[in-house]
Amino acid sequence: MTxxxxxxxxxxxxxxxxxxVDKWILASTVLLIGIGILLNLSAGPPAAGRIHADTFHFVRxxxxxxxxxxxxxxxxxxxxxxxxxxxAVIGFCAAAFLTFLTVAFGSDINGAKRWLSIGPxxxxxxxxxxxxxxxxxxxxxxxxxRMRENFPGNxxxxxxxxxxxxxxxxxxxxxxxxxxxxVWAAQFFMAGLPIFWVALIVVAGVSAIVGAYFxxxxxxxxxxxxxxxxxxxxxxVTQAMRAFQQGGLFGRGPGEGRxxxxxxxxxxxxxxxxxxxxxxVFLCLLIVALFAFIVIRALTRAMREENxxxxxxxxxxSVQFGLQAMVNMASSLHMMPTKGxxxxxxxxxxxxxxxxxxxxxxxxxxxxxxxxxxxxxx
Amino acid sequence: xxxxxxxxxxxxxxxxxxxxxxxxxxxLHGTTKHAIETGRMRLIATAGLxxxxxxxxxxxxxxxxxxxxxxxAVYSRSHGAARSPMARADIVDRNxxxxxxxxxxxxxxxDTHEVPxxxxxxxxxxxxxxxxxxxxxxxxxxxGQRFMYLRRNLTPEDQMxxxxxxxxGVYFEDSESRAYLHSSLFAQVIGNTDPDxxxxxxxxxxxxxxxxxxxxxxxxxxxxxxxSAVHETLAASxxxxxxxxxxxxxxxxHSGEVLAMVSLPDFDPKAMNAASQDERFNRSxxxxxxxxxxxxxxxxxxxxxxxxxxxxxxxxxxxxIKIGRFTIHDDHPLNRRLTVPEILVHSSxxxxxxxxxxAGTETQKSYLKKFGLLSQLELEVPERGTPQxxxxxxxxxxxxxxxxxxxxxxxxxxAAAVSALVNGGTLYTPTLVRNATGEAPVGQxxxxxxxxxxxRAMMRMIATVDGGTGRQADAAAKGYDIGGKTGSAEKxxxxxxxxxxxxxxxxxxxxxxxxxxxxxxxxxxxxxxTKETYNFATAGWNAAPTAGNIVNKIGPMLGVFPVGHDDNxxxxxxxxxxxxxGGGSDDYAKPVLVKAPTxxxxxxxxxxxxxxxxxxxxxxxxxxxxxxxxxxxGDLIGTLRTGGTGAAQ
Lengths: 378, 649
Hints:
The complex is a heterodimer. Chain A is mainly α. Chain A has 14 helices and three strands. In chain A, a hairpin with a 3-residue loop joins strand 2 (about 110-120) and strand 3 (about 120-125). The longest helix of chain A is centred in the C-terminal third of the chain and has 33 residues, at about 270-305. Chain B is of the alpha+beta class. Chain B has 22 helices and 18 strands. In chain B, the strands form six sheets. In chain B, strands 1, 2, 3, 4 and 5 form a five-stranded mixed β-sheet that branches. Chain B has a five-stranded antiparallel β-sheet with strand order 7-6-18-17-16, with helices on both faces.
């Protein structure tokens, strides 16, 4: 991978970053961000119209958060693995504390306390940040457990999971809880959990989902509606299906979509449907391909790692990133019950965007080449 | 190193500090290697799972967006591309101009099970669609129906606004609505449709099935341009003569095709619900009127045809006829013997009555029957009148019917019968549908060509000689040679019996009278005298000039030339030749111009007058036509005029 823009002689921090960072992941992420801007321009104005804001309200907000997210991603990607770990530990504590505050004092939006208002304008969803930091922290704990005899890393990771889940479920945020649990389970699996335990965790996960179905009424309702669309309000997914069908091969053309006017969540949870309707199947396949590429590329980069912590951290972060994309797209396509989950870098959402900056920053930091072809440390 | 230290943790190598991360490779090489290998295997498995998941999403995308031909039932909320049950074929005029068509529209409906808050939804909707009432909306939205129309035919703007309200359970249904592009021009004859696109009257009703099933436009014999000219002229006359109503029909004498049919007052089909009974009433097909003196044409034709009289026979009109308690007078008595032409020109009731008595009651009855004047109108609309006449037909009836009283028929009856009088004697069934087969229509020979020629000559005299009641028609036609007969009948008053103060006037005419192609019928209901008419309100003063005006307007449209036009104007001839050779690309103008040759050769038993015309000269319609000379109408009129005027002086 020869790059001449900044030569290898360039030993500045940025110069070193440039020729060690994985440019495939970088390029794919930039492309995703570009598609995100395009779709936000399309889906943002009708959503703004619905809340009687000015036409480009959401576009402007997203464009304000974007540089912040890019900056965060860049700064984090400069870090060495050990710095990433320290940063994640501190970040985890801070995010956990803030999430605790949301449960205690947060504002109730759509029946859930997920948001924290700092001052009149700043609003944030700390659990978005809790997610990646927790993945890195648990990666550390799992790797320490394997690396150091008699170190109860697994126990600590498990305990932290319970604390995080307790906070998330009291919001309640089933989607986030599911993702966090799934990522944790995936990392545990990658850390070499015996197959018997893997099976047990799968059973536990399925039981938890079934349990959620019976315990939380809104989960019950969503699943019922998925299984039988004629029961109750399947409005959003019905409209999304029509949008995809309308789109066909080449789409109705930019700005020509109708679903964004009919769907309240067209700029967030159902933005994939907007992409399908206006730009057709090719853009949708490109989006799927980009997500798949980033996830698989990050995972294969992690495979070359000698450091178990890095392997588990990249694995966890990639799984989290990929899972979020997968769940969002599968929900829009009516392959699973609708789940309030954003499509990374594409859906509207300030906190989510900056948190994704953190995720990609950490993935890029951890997937940077740390050895030259001769095996010398860089 | 947060949370790592533990007091209970045993030290495997006493004295050694627990700082394994400093040099993990040396101390735990085996463990590390094993853990890393397991981790890699598990990463591959994870990557594989993700790959599979994303592949499934891709397949689902392709399946849904590309391979999916049919919308699954649960997703389909509106009618797809399939032919909507509301679809309906167009109705076009004889030149293919659209009269009625379907436009895509959108209906708003609700699945009331899905509306979370009916009151809120109603408030929002009522604020947007101002013609909807809040309480009515609440009633509909709480009806529990899974399909409940809230409003039909939303404009795109309304649709967008309602869509933006984002009310769950409120949906749009693609639909079609009938559009009448000429507003009220064809009101009664075309009729309209209900919101479900079923025909409610006129052509829409009689061709309901065909229109609902087919995609091929229904081509009518009507001509938008002629209809428009007739509509405009009649409306102007109603205003000018302060009449309460009117009707007019233009018919092709060689096929019975109706080119224009107007009944005023009329209505805008879009607002048919608001139309009064009177406005919906098609006077041309359903209205039964006593045609008055215009009926004398049939009396004369019968007398000539049966031979009970010839053109030189005279009848004494000096004395009124007394029969029972009735006395028959002439309006403008000449108190002398009149020839048959004079009886028509001066519209003598006594003369007509005597002619009819000469021929006999049964003859009169059978001839009127032959002309189709005693049976229900045959036409492709549901609104068809059945003539009214006395069930027991006695002498007194024979007398009154001879001058058009005591029998009432529809304007289309008159147009069809007079067509037979002037076209060489063939009666065609009136029709509103254009004959697209190219086959000549089949008619029934009711009088001889000789009688027909005589009738044309006398009709021309009525419009031209001194004292002729149709002179104003000829004047108004401005060069188009027109022939016709007036008729004025007092309206039957509220107490029965005729009212002196209100009457109906008609003028039935044919043009060009030398080789008739079209019959123009005009009826005015309760016209009044004006300063210009010296306060006269009889047919010659209002209905006749109206018909003349119509002829003057539609003549050019129908390719009829005024008398004395220059046949040898070379540039025009070249142009017309090009058109008649099919060289014209203007489909609009073409049918009119090629019309003449078509008309020139109908395969009827009686040779119509125009059959003598060369096909290459479709525009040679003037009196001066060489073909007309031997025994033509010019000679005939000449003879009659000398005799007639001589007797009058």
